[in-house]
Sequence to fold (250 residues):
Amino acid sequence: MEFVSVSIENGVAEVVLHRGKVNALNESVVEELKGCFQELEVDPETRAVILTAAGRFFSFGFDIPEFRNHTPEAFTRYLTKFADLYTYLFVYPKPVVAALNGHTIAGGAMLATACDHRIMIDGKAKISLNEISFGSSVFAGAVEMLKACVGHANAETILLSGEMYSADDALKLGLIHQKAPEQTFREEAMRVAQKFAKTDQQAFRSIKFLLRKPIAERMVPREAASIKEFVDIWYSESTRSQTERITIHS
Fold:
């Protein structure tokens, strides 16, 4: 795999995203992540998964400069794959810990909310679903996952403000479960994952499905319409004028 690496230790698989300085998401990254998690799902040695990234970004979100050259049809194909990935992670049968090693923005935050536990590095890192700040919308599934994490009122605050939250603020909102200093961040993420790995796997899968499958069943029927609306807004003159100003330093 070009953008994703995997290592397994004591029943915990660590999936690391490494794509440039900001780990921006594109179709290749989404496909690699989906394939990686599918392999780990059937791997008997893997009892829990850590999803993290290299560098100072967990993920900037979508690779906006790359998508400027996409047709609406190609962009819709990507968005459909992306929504399929986070829905798959949301009901993934094994525990998934999101180790947010740095800035976690937009699509990156959506992937984080699909996970079972979110630990964020303390310091300068920010987490945000900031789509509204550049004239974009979100997806039906992303809204449902966020509400499951933080409740309806906090989801409204997060999505309608587009604010960038520190680890402290994210913890207060329920957007993350815990924070950790850089010195012990990876060790703490591994501790959480190993605790999950010791749980009874059949029981975990059953309870997770009972909690999350009804939410996923609300997400899926509305997803295609929300993606279409997202694309319509994305290609509107006002939004394109804002995304044209966004650059990514690789």
